[in-house]
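Board notes, transcribed. Complex of a protein with pyridoxal-5'-phosphate.
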Amino acid sequence: MKFNTKTIHGKQHPDFAYGAVMPPIYQTSTYAQTTPGGHKGFEYSRTHNPTRQALENAFASIENGEFGLAFGSGLAAIDAVMKLLKPGDEVISTNDLYGGTYRLFTSIFEGFGIKFHFVGMNNAANIENFVNDNTKLIWVETPTNPMLNIIDIKATATIAKKHNILLAVDNTFATPYLQQPLDLGADIVMHSATKYIGGHSDLVMGALIVSDKDLANRLYFIQNASGAICGPQDAFLALRGIKTLHVRMQRHCENGKAVANYLASHPKVEKVYWPGFENHPNHSIAKSQMNDFGGMMSFNTKGNNYEDAIKVVENLKIFTLAESLGGVESLAGHPASMTHASIPREERIKTGVVDSLIRLSVGIEDEEDLINDLKQALG
Ligand SMILES: *Cc1c(COP(=O)(O)O)cnc(C)c1O
């Protein structure tokens, strides 16, 4: 089965009860047993729920994995991965990282005795400088948020395998439409399904996808033992979102390209960060590991002035000023004061998240309307 077909049919079947084509929302906490232990595979909805299971199967299918796990948020999914570790273990992480992931790592898991190295990974070979006997996990986000750096997943997987370290890839920005990290050698794929997977800005959810059975069992144990699952209503919505992922992504990519080119030609724009540009430092890696370049980009205004950036985002009319990304509607954000406010200013500026940086999630509206909106806001 190819990707577009998988989004609709992958690991799915009509409901066993009445043949419903969409899995019903099994809004139940528990399941009747005929005799103690005599059940149809479902005992309690923290452990299993048929709607969630249909979604977890879809997650696995679209990422070319064997096992999918759904969580109550992207951060809950990351939290579950971190619970594979023990005090004294070390993690090598991308330094340009979703702010909430950085906060989870530093404010919670550092306190549990896990050591993090935040490392520039534009050259994957740099990762090896931080490997030691305690290194248990490499955490990669690519494209990175919000600088749209590209990390070579295959090269990173080679280093991880050589030292017997798990490699996890946050695939939220790319989605499996653009890149499939398990095929490139990663052990764990993570999603904030809140974003492109859900696609309609109407739910908060996380996903993990793996192919190794032992690893899957350890993660299912953590999912059930810690309990950060999603409810059946959200599982239904995410499953519906997946069925149009490929058509939405195609338009996100087309509009993204048009908007990136427009911004790059604008006299008031200093720089546009988008992996589709030939002068992007890792454009060739993006081209080899991604099918297209997506609708996420960042840019800063000439003069690098905080107030200018605020004025631009306030003046936008079709782009909504909001956190988050990946929905059908276009969003603009100011990372320094919004998504990345939890990262100390010096750390933030070191990675390029300057005061004037604006991040765009280009939606699937008409390209002309989006460009005209940017034109009037920059004007
Ligand atoms: C939003 C996001 C997360 C966190 O996901 P939530 O669903 O908000 O918990 C993690 N990584 C990336 C890249 C994100 O954009």
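Residues 245-378 form a domain with the Aspartate Aminotransferase, domain 1 fold (CATH 3.90.1150.10). The chain has two domains: 3-243, 245-378.
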